[in-house]
């Protein structure tokens, strides 16, 4: 990092960091939410209404992960995790595993992970290395129709919120990478940081809706901006 070195750095990533790896974003032109209604696949109600459709949507996205690789932005953040002398918190809204495949080891997945499954019946969590099927029985409680992708849908509470807010409060730099800032609570992190006097930086392809809230914004592809920020 070339500028004033923070001792506590909080980084939030979104779909834009994985876009150059070939993972679709949600709200860009041609993004996922222009092809499928989020109400049909990303709500607890959709899971109850049409389990097969929801499973198929996430099975296809899980299968797609084997065809993509981390890009220079994920790699730069993994390097940063290993080299940063202060406290680094890396929070992602992404359910892909590209940060980990680049070598990051302490990623907080606030919207869950495609590689995990969760039982609505008994709260058992397990690795999901293959497609989930409608008639899968939970290995722990034996119920069927309860195994779901371990992801956070609209109306559900994101993971690790207490830890995330604690780390955000003690940061001295908040960096938002590749996210439109359209989804709460992550969209509120920048105002939370500002209220606490924490410096804020946006790295995004183009100005996000909330770009004006940041002390500084740099625009361009994550594969260029993130290594330039880290190195
Ligand atoms: C590049 C790039 C490149 C492209 N380089 N950049 C009114 C009604 C109902 C609900 C609400 C309401 N108002 C608020 C809510 C709450 C709701 C919400 O925010 N809704 C909004 C739509 C208004 N939020 C929730 O329900 C959340 N839960 C909640 O609030 O609980 C209450 C609570 C919270 C905390 C404590 C206590 C209680 C849950 C939200 C769950 C979101 N889930 C999803 C799906 C997850 C699984 C999946 O992936 O399928 O998460 S939705 C989807 O959006 C996904 C993403 O993580 C999330 C954010 O998207 P992201 O990452 O920003 O992607 P895009 O596509 O929007 O943006 C990409 C950006 O990258 C763009 O800016 C590009 O320019 C940029 N880019 N290429 C750099 N190469």
TrEMBL record:
Species annotation: Fulvimarina uroteuthidis
Function: NAD-dependent lysine deacetylase and desuccinylase that specifically removes acetyl and succinyl groups on target proteins. Modulates the activities of several proteins which are inactive in their acylated form.
Keywords carried by this UniProt record: Acyltransferase, Cytoplasm, Metal-binding, NAD, Transferase, Zinc
Binding-site positions, NAD(+): 14-33, 93-96, 178-180, 204-206, 222
Enzyme class: transferase
Keyword Chloroplast on entry: no
UniProt cofactor note: Binds 1 zinc ion per subunit.
EC number per UniProt: 2.3.1.286
Subcellular compartments: Cytoplasm
Catalytic site: 111 (proton acceptor)
This protein's name: NAD-dependent protein deacylase
Family indicated by similarity: Belongs to the sirtuin family. Class III subfamily.
Domain Deacetylase sirtuin-type positions: 1-231
Xref: InterPro entries: DHS-like_NAD/FAD-binding_dom, NAD-dep_sirtuin_deacylases, Sirtuin, Sirtuin_cat_small_dom_sf, Sirtuin_class_III, Ssirtuin_cat_dom
Keyword Cell division: no
HAMAP family on file: Sirtuin_ClassIII
CDD domains xref list: SIRT5_Af1_CobB (cd01412)
Chief location category: cytoplasm
Cofactor(s) required for function per UniProt: Zn(2+)
Gene: cobB
Binding site for Zn(2+): 119, 122, 138, 141
Catalytic activities: N(6)-succinyl-L-lysyl-[protein] + NAD(+) + H2O = 2''-O-succinyl-ADP-D-ribose + nicotinamide + L-lysyl-[protein]; N(6)-acetyl-L-lysyl-[protein] + NAD(+) + H2O = 2''-O-acetyl-ADP-D-ribose + nicotinamide + L-lysyl-[protein]
Gene Ontology molecular function: NAD-dependent protein lysine deacetylase activity
Domain description: 2 residues (Tyr-58 and Arg-61) present in a large hydrophobic pocket are probably involved in substrate specificity. They are important for desuccinylation activity, but dispensable for deacetylation activity.
PANTHER family reported for this sequence: NAD-DEPENDENT PROTEIN DEACYLASE, NAD-DEPENDENT PROTEIN DEACYLASE SIRTUIN-5, MITOCHONDRIAL-RELATED
Pfam families membership: SIR2
Binding sites annotated in the UniProt record for substrate: 58, 61
């Amino acid at each position: 990092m070339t500028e004033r070195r923070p001792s506590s750095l909080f980084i939030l990533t979104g779909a834009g960091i994985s876009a150059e790896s070939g993972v679709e974003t949600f709200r860009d032109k041609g993004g996922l939410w222009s092809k499928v209604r989020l109400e049909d696949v990303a709500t607890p109600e959709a899971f109850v209404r049409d389990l097969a459709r929801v499973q198929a949507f996430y099975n296809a996205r899980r299968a797609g992960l084997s065809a993509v690789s981390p890009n220079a932005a994920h790699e730069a953040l993994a390097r940063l995790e290993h080299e940063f002398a202060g406290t680094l918190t890396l929070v992602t809204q992404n359910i892909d595993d590209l940060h980990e495949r680049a070598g990051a080891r302490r990623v907080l997945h606030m919207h869950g992970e495609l590689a995990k499954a969760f039982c609505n019946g008994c709260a058992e969590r397990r690795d999901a290395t293959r497609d989930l099927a409608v008639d899968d029985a939970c290995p722990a409680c034996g119920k069927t129709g309860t195994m779901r992708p371990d992801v956070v849908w609209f109306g559900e509470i994101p993971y690790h919120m207490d830890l995330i807010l604690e780390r955000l409060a003690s940061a001295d730099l908040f960096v938002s990478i590749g996210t439109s800032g359209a989804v709460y609570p992550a969209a509120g992190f920048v105002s939370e940081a500002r209220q606490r006097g924490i410096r804020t930086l946006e790295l995004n392809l183009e100005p996000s809706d909330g770009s004006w809230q940041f002390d500084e914004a740099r625009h361009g592809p994550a594969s260029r901006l993130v290594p330039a920020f880290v190195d």
